[in-house]
């Protein structure tokens, strides 16, 4: 059962927005307008980004297995238990087409807002990258399932799902 909490926020025009956000652990939030299936999919992807299990075979760094995991040195998103799993994901998986440095954003990437002081209610929310905002190191981002667009500095953004991986969703 998914549990959400009522949240009120204000859009840039001063309009009140009331919705439910689902906590996905480590502060990630999704709007209630998403179907339970989509929420479960994003929750699973969010768990992967925590680096607690191998992205190929699923073996865990917690519990009785206690496998030591290594992160991809370029993107720092993918975790692997062995060189074999890393090679398999690079060759047969889709990691080769979506591996890029953490602050190299593209349109349609899903990011998590973090460290926002002017809009703290958005911290932990998943947002969709739209385009560069025209100001150095800033991007236009939109709330998932909403129509509010804001400009955000890239240091306040954490890549969760690259646009290339969203094609499967």
Automatic annotation (TrEMBL):
Keywords: Metal-binding, Zinc, Zinc-finger
Domain of life: Eukaryota
GO molecular-function terms, A-Z: zinc ion binding
SUPFAM superfamilies: HIT/MYND zinc finger-like (SSF144232)
InterPro entries for the chain: Znf_MYND
Keyword flag Nuclease: no
Sequence ranges assigned to domain MYND-type in this UniProt record: 54-99
A Pfam family: zf-MYND
UniProt protein name: MYND-type domain-containing protein
């Amino acid at each position: 059962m998914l549990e959400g909490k009522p949240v009120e926020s204000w859009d840039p025009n001063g309009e009140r927005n009331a919705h439910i956000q689902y906590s996905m652990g480590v502060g990630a939030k999704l709007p209630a307008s998403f179907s339970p299936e989509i929420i479960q999919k994003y929750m699973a992807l969010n768990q992967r980004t925590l680096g607690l299990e191998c992205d190929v075979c699923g073996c865990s760094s917690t519990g009785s297995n206690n496998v030591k995991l290594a992160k991809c040195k370029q993107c720092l998103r993918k975790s692997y238990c062995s060189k074999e799993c890393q090679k398999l994901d690079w060759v047969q998986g889709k990691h080769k087409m979506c591996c890029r440095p953490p602050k190299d954003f593209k349109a349609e990437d899903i990011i998590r807002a973090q460290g926002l002081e002017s809009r703290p209610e958005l911290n932990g929310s998943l947002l969709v990258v739209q385009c560069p905002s025209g100001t150095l190191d800033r991007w236009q981002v939109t709330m998932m399932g909403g129509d509010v667009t804001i400009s955000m500095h890239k240091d306040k953004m954490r890549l969760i799902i690259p646009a290339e991986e969203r094609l499967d969703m």
